[in-house]
Design a protein that fits this description.
The complex is a heterodimer of chains A (about 160) and B (about 110). With about 160 residues, chain A is mainly alpha-helical. Chain A folds into 2 domains: about 50 residues, no CATH class; about 110 residues, no CATH class. Chain A has 6 helices and 3 strands; from the N terminus they run αααβαββαα. In chain A, helix 4 runs antiparallel to helix 6. Chain B has one domain. Classes of the chains: A mainly alpha (about 160), B mainly alpha (about 110).
Amino acid sequence: MKTIRMRLATFLILTVIWLLVMYPFSSADLALGAGIALFLSLLPLPGLRIYEEISPAPRKIIYALIFLLVFVKAVILSNLDVAFRVLKPSLPINPGIVRVKTKLKSRLGRLFLANAITLTPGTITVEAEGEDFYIHWIDVASHDVDESTSKIVSGFEKYLEVIFG
Amino acid sequence: MIMGYIGGILAIIGSLFLLLAAIGLIRMPDTYNRMQAGTKATTLGSALIFAGIALHQPGWELKMTGLIIFVFLTNPLSSHALARAAHFIGMNPFVKGKSQSSRDDLKARRDEE
């Protein structure tokens, strides 16, 4: 069951990317892309196992959409934040690398969390080791692991926990 | 026509963010902070430019959507790889004023091993 779901997810993702790139597509394009995607998704590639964690439950899709909105808002805020810091003559930064913890177990969830942290205000994921993330923070506001965790991670974690949990 | 103008405005805002990224690269004091300016502003900047092109050129919307998704997935990964490599070769985060020592939990972790 798990391998079927994983191969189906691979097939759908590859086909959708192909159709996005080829748009506007003819039926021949569709057939060619779907054929190649089918072939690739049947290959025994160990990296595909990561797609086992995707499942199309309605609750997960709703949370994914909310996550997308939260994420876009965070990206815009982060850009304005960086713009403000760059343009201000005094250069208001107080950087450091802090450790935060994540509750997420799924690898795909951790990947999305690390990417989301990198794109949100003032933080870049420098290293991910198991449940510990090491984050470069442009303005270190807290010296406590739990407090940094709630400031940096928790906003995204609650959605990702449902989506990939 | 009106869509073309909106697209143009989006592309101009996008290129302003790219300009900010470039200014950030010059003004920031160390690798990690340059990465901060570089990653964020270029991600939104490119996304806005792609959105502008999509509005300007009817028929390119889906291609540009694909590109935006691609940039959003790959840009943070590449800057993470750069920051990680910078840390591996021993760069310390910059501190304002010489009195305090830089806060670096990852270095402390590596020293423990």
